[in-house]
Amino acid sequence: MSRWVLHVDLDQFLAAVEQLRHPELAGRPVIVGGSADPTDRAVVATASYEAREYGVRSGMPLRLAVRRCPDAVLLPADNPTYEAASAEVTAVLREFPVVVEVIGWDEAFLGWDGAGYESPEELAFAVRAEVKERTRLSCAVGIGDNTLRAKMATGFAKPGGIHRLTAHNWFSTLGDSPTEALSGIGVKTARKLADLGLHTVTQLAEASPTAVGRTLGPRMGPYYVSLGRGMGRTEVEGTPYVPRSRSRETTFRENLDDWSRVREEVSALAQRVADDVLEEGRDVARVGVKVRYAPFLTRTRSITLPEATRDAAVLGAAAAEVLGWFDPAKPVRLLGVRAEFVEP
Asked: Looking at residues 140-166, what average pLDDT do you find?
């Protein structure tokens, strides 16, 4: 092959940044999330590998994380610091003869046409070493013949390693794995596939896209089958990373039963989002609201604006309108407001 896709994924990124800022935390279990108050209904953003040994995982409630790892150091999320660290890594990646597609704070795809290095592994070693030397952050690198296989390869490379996954070893590596091992298939979708008799990656790959589409939808059914077959983009897009939206959300210590209080909180969140939008300097096309009822039922709704805007009053009114579509009789534990930008 003359064209390869590499997926660079920073190891335990947020926790690693905090351990660099606080050298005394090296080797200790670290949990980053919310305001670092376990009495809040916040969740774990990232856990260091030392904390993960106790079963702490991203998305887990902080209260549960602390029970599993009582000796962990809890730290509040510091987004500006993480953004700065991410930018440093991206700057390093752009110095290589590759096309860089940033897909998040801690990961990026690299498109390589064979220039400058004998093999994709040689390039991966160089990338990993340079990122470590320049930023002191560790990364894993997955090598593939498309974006899906490169990203899946990274899972076998972590932490801090390199792995190649292509059409030649896709089924020998993942064929017997459950479908939820695939990036893009969660537990609920895996259950639906299991109801169709599709339990493994190979079974999914051999399924009829049309047949799966009759149950999971004409668009998503064929998409899931394509995941089973290891299909993905072969071209890496070198456009700068541009956030698609801005959002704010709040988890309440006590459930909100008073809907007038819910409206007040949504209004405050909408104002914070409007401030973010103004700082971003881009127009908004859609406004969404997320409501999580007690104990943990989440619903989201959104509305398309008559015309794109960054006007705070318009965004607030749209959020209030969407909120009116929710059931006011149920106690609320979390609220969120999202503004989706006009596509560049």
From this structure: 96
| Mean model confidence pLDDT for the chain | 93
Task: Supply angle C-alpha 218, 221, 227, rounded to 5.
Answer: 140
Secondary structure of residue 166 in the 3-state scheme: coil
Whose tokens are 């990124």? That residue is 13
Grouping H, G, I as helix, E, B as strand and the rest as coil, residue 254 is strand
Confidence of residue 270 (pLDDT cuts 50, 70, 90): very high
Catalytically active residues, by annotation: 107
Find, among 231, 269, 235, 274, the residue nearest to 250 by Cα: 269
| Greater pLDDT, 322 or 2 | 322
Residue 65 is classified by DSSP as: H
For residues 294 and 99, what is the distance between their CA atoms, to the nearest angstrom? 45
Structure-token match 């994709």, residue found: 120
Whole-model pTM over 0.90: no
The length of the chain, given as a count of residues: 344
- 3-class DSSP state of 31: strand
185 secondary structure, DSSP code: -
Looking at the chain, list the stretches that DSSP marks H as alpha helix, in order from N- to C-terminal side: 13-21, 49-52, 62-68, 79-93, 120-135, 147-157, 170-174, 187-195, 201-206, 209-216, 220-228, 259-280, 312-323
CB atoms within 10 A of CB 167: 13
pLDDT digits (tens, 9 = 90+) for 115-136: 889 999 999 999 999 999 999 9
